[in-house]
């Protein structure tokens, strides 16, 4: 699960067909070997998808099947995850989101949400990041994508059938803190950017670019697109991506001390750029290479 704000659009909606991905040769899949010789595979996930994304490329499934453990951000099927998320998603009693936004911004938001069947009355009691999340998921659903068709769940089911152990890289509390992080002003700015893309009809083009980059394993293109709408020095970027990358890399390195081969599936935005998990592992002495369908 990984997952939020523009990050949701950059990660949740990185979707495309497996056949198109395979045809291009490169995959959003990395192999990393520790200084002690243990191997871990890192696969960039999309958390919502549709039937066209399956079956996954054999190069991916082969690496999963050869592993002993599957590592995920957190188990998305945990009951406490949604409960804890909702507990921090609401504004204090008596407070309204509209009073925190300008009249023009609020009107643009309710126009966009209304087209998705999300009434203004429901949004009034929510924090900006939660509203942004709902808009992102609503846009995905309108495009025919579904959380139930996410890559994470598919790989978790396959791992379970093959007897692989499941390990989590984050705690529920840590992930909830991340998705609700940043100042309220930054959250409102991120929400406004989402509304503008919906209003101006630019979201489709943006998502198409993201899809093509994910399909072709274009890590540089993915990194550029993620940061187009998430400024590098923005607190949200640091909390949602940069700090979590450090935690993930540390967690992987610690677990790999036992020498067992592992397969890691996390949101693909965590795997790209100089601050991505593959590069952080490289700095720890790991030998890292991006794989393709021919590997």
Number of strands: 6
Overall tally of structural domains: 1
- Order of strands in the sheet with the most strands? 4-3-5-2-1-6
Could you describe the largest sheet, including whether it forms a barrel?
Answer: 6 strands, mixed
**N-to-C series of helices and strands:** HHEEHEHHHHHEHHHHHEHE
Share of helical residues: 40-55%
- Uncertain segments: 1-23
Could you tell me how far the N terminus lies from the C terminus, measured between alpha carbons in angstroms?
A: 27 Å
Q: What is the averaged pLDDT score? A: 84
Shape: globular
Q: Hey, roughly how much beta strand do the residues contain?
A: 5-15%
Figure out the total of helices.
Answer: 14
Gyration radius from CA atoms, angstroms: 19 Å
Structure description:
The structure is a single chain. The protein is an alpha/beta fold and 295 residues long. It has one domain. The protein is built from 14 helices and 6 strands. It has a 6-stranded mixed β-sheet. Strand 1 and strand 2 form a beta hairpin. Helix 11 runs antiparallel to helix 12. The N terminus is likely disordered.
Task: Using brief descriptors, characterize the structure shown.
295 residues; alpha/beta; 6 strands; single chain; 14 helices; disordered N terminus; 6-stranded mixed beta sheet
Quickly describe the structure.
This protein has 295 residues and is an alpha/beta fold. The chain has one domain.
Topology, pairings included?
Elements: H1 5-11, H2 18-23, E1 26-33, E2 39-45, H3 58-65, E3 69-72, H4 79-87, H5 103-114, H6 120-123, H7 128-142, H8 151-161, E4 165-168, H9 172-179, H10 184-200, H11 203-215, H12 219-228, H13 235-255, E5 262-267, H14 277-283, E6 287-292
Helix pairs in contact: 1-7, 5-10, 7-10, 11-12, 13-14
